[in-house]
Amino acid sequence: MAMSIFSTVSQAQERPDLLFREDWKVSPAEIPVNQKHIVNDDLVLHLYGPGQDSLKKSHHDKPLDDPYYVWSGLCLENWAIAFEHKDYYANLTGLSKIQWRAKQFGFRQLHIIIQLINGDWLVSEQADGASTDWRIKAFNIKDLTWRQLDIEQVVEGKIVENPDLSKVAQIGFTDLMRGGKSASCSRLDWFEVYAFRVKK
Fold first, then answer.
1. Class for domain 2-199, per CATH?
2. Which of 6, 71, 121, 179 could serve as a FRET partner for 30 with CA atoms 20 to 30 Å apart?
């Protein structure tokens, strides 16, 4: 019995490796962001919501260290972006985490979204808020509270208790709002998922 308990505890404390990272390609600004802007060949880009056509893959020559990023400022309606790994589902149990480098202005709060293996979508209550400069934010998945997500309209719903995160098909982000140009917008530079691999 002691061996069984020890084994379970040990597995629960395993820290998963990086499943994927996405940095946007070094290329001129364009609307909308699309698959050709994806650096990671293992990923498929998905855009959702009525505002998806205005998501901009952006970059500025000044400041000199300005990254290549996605910008929501021109979106007239709600929007969402998600990544799908071609070979693996993400097992987001245990010590899994998601982190990114982002910058929000106004009331924008950038949330994690996920699609479960059964097709249901969830959005995290926890989010990354406004910042005067680029900031790295890490989310421990076990600390998150989830709500239903209407992926067509990109609107949150009821709280979902104890969802099964052992096979997650898509992972992404949204601020659940329309854009308000530079004064009210979200910007995302890079995106990382640390999760256990589940072969498709």
1. mainly beta
2. 121
